[in-house]
Specification:
484 residues, Alpha-Beta Plaits, eight-stranded mixed sheet, 2 domains, 21% strand, binds zinc ion, 15 helices
Length: 484
């Protein structure tokens, strides 16, 4: 009997091994063929383009300032026609507030246009004296263009315009129309910029086939056990919700504390929330990321990803272990603010904490609130959303089957030829969401290599882009526009 069971087990294992092996071997790459570049324009000289970008980095178009730095934006708008004369002569861009909208009509008006988005504002600099080269001097040194906005996001704005200018000069005419939308306040939510640009487009009855905005980039593949660099295209961005937890008690003198103070009750609620994270799951853009990666992997990684449903519990545990990958598989929760007694010897009559949640596509804001209430399970803790639940959800997930996604993936492979392309999820918020009602699909990708060190420079110190990388970004956009 035992022998029969053992034999049965053996055959079951063989069957499973065979199925896994079959699944692993039958994977075929989803990468578009690496076609040779077919640019429809002569690209500008890298050094000249770098100088133009450096010039814009000198203008302190800093977000969230009071008063609004209108003068810096005016100077930037004055610079644009000097840098891109052909664009301004032929397309007559429209200035809306401190933002800019450019329209290049296609030769086939029945085709829905594409929109490329970028932003002209930058985040403030905390300690300018700590920078290797001052943040608003726009220096080109050691092969790099240094300054706030060099990566986020003036490089994209200028690279798009350089590509457009080059194509206009050569007399190329796209079949599909193109819009370029440059917002003025992405870093503070995009209300005056992207939202207004989107409203203008709606007023003009524009329906877009697709939008391309900043978001993900090309990362060194070795970070995830893949040899070539990995170009990640964001199909969606996570939702954003802040919730205040509030406990009110009678307060009093700290020399005679009750069994439980407002702070104790609040602390217990925060511990419960920490210990009961929202459930992890591998679906949507994160699952698609692994489906695209699997055929490019070697060895055990390939076997595991090829059979990801089978290995899901193991995979989820591994992904949950790192903050960067944990954020791909669940709605995250981070306590960010705390407030209690104003004096060291007085009991808090009012203790408050704010938690910031980033919602996974599919996790509705109401369901998240229900999870929080069920986890805290204490009527003394009042939970109140700080932003509108109606707009807190993650974005819609765009398709990898669209014509524009194929063009995007192909253009990446044509410009960054060793890269592997894969879809993924953007963890932060971008301007792109303002265009959602107008577009069938929205993609988030910035055509630059970003190492972990570069990521720290964004919103951090010593932000810079290499002269070569900026030229490559221009080549990418020229490639993309050549395909319209
Ligand atoms: Zn940005």
């Amino acid at each position: 009997m035992l022998k029969r069971f053992a034999l049965l087990g053996f055959w079951a294992l063989c069957g499973l091994g065979g199925a896994m092996g079959w699944q692993t071997c039958s994977l075929s790459s989803r990468q578009p063929a690496a076609l040779p570049a077919n640019l429809k324009a002569d690209l500008p000289e890298a050094r000249r383009a770098a100088e133009r970008l450096a010039e814009t980095l000198r203008l302190q178009t800093v977000s969230g300032q009071k008063p609004f730095p209108a003068e810096a934006f005016d100077q930037l708008h004055a610079l644009l026609p000097q840098h891109f004369p052909e664009t301004f002569r032929r397309l007559q861009p429209r200035r809306l507030g401190h933002s800019l909208l450019i329209h290049w009509p296609g030769s086939k008006p029945e085709l829905k246009p594409i929109l490329l988005a970028a932003h002209l504002d930058v985040v403030p600099v905390a300690a300018p004296e700590s920078w290797t080269h001052p943040p608003f001097v726009g220096q080109i040194k050691d092969g790099y263009i240094w300054g706030r906005g060099a990566l986020d996001d003036k490089n994209s704005a200028w690279a798009i315009l350089e590509a457009l200018e080059a194509l206009l000069k050569t007399g190329y005419q796209p079949r599909q129309g193109l819009y370029i939308a440059l917002g003025e306040d992405e870093e503070t939510g995009g209300r005056n910029g992207a939202q207004r640009l989107a409203e203008q487009l709606r007023a003009d009855s524009v329906q877009l086939e697709a939008v391309l905005d900043e978001g993900l980039a090309i990362v060194p593949g070795s970070m995830i056990g893949l040899e070539p660099p990995l170009a990640l295209i964001g199909l969606a961005e996570k939702g954003y919700l802040s919730v205040r937890l509030r406990v009110t008690q009678s307060g009093g003198h700290a020399s005679m504390p009750p069994r439980e103070t407002a702070v104790d009750i609040l602390a217990r609620a925060l511990v419960r929330l920490n210990q009961s994270p929202m459930p992890a799951r591998l679906e949507g853009p994160a699952a698609q990321l692994f489906d695209w990666l699997a055929p490019e992997m070697q060895g055990l990684n390939r076997v595991i990803l090829a059979n990801r449903r089978l290995f899901e519990p193991v995979l989820l545990r591994q992904l949950a272990a790192r903050a960067t990958t944990n954020a791909l598989i669940r709605t995250t929760l981070a306590p960010t603010q705390l407030k209690a007694s104003p004096k060291d010897n007085v009991l808090a009559s009012d203790a408050e904490a704010v938690i910031n949640l980033r919602l996974l596509p599919g996790d509705g804001p109401e369901a998240v609130m229900a999870h929080l209430n069920a986890t805290v399970q204490d009527a003394r803790v009042q939970l109140q959303p700080l932003n509108d639940l109606a707009t807190a959800a993650a974005s819609v997930v765009s398709s990898t089957e669209s014509a524009f996604f194929a063009l995007l993936a192909r253009s990446i492979r044509q410009t960054f030829d060793t890269s592997v392309v894969a879809p993924s999820l953007v963890l932060a918020a971008t301007d792109a969401r303002h265009y959602a009602p107008l577009a069938e699909n929205i993609y988030r990708f910035m055509p630059v290599y970003l190492t972990a060190e570069d990521l720290e420079r964004i919103h951090g110190k010593d932000e810079r882009i290499s002269v070569e990388a900026h030229a490559q970004a221009i080549a990418f956009y020229a490639q993309l526009l050549s395909g319209l």
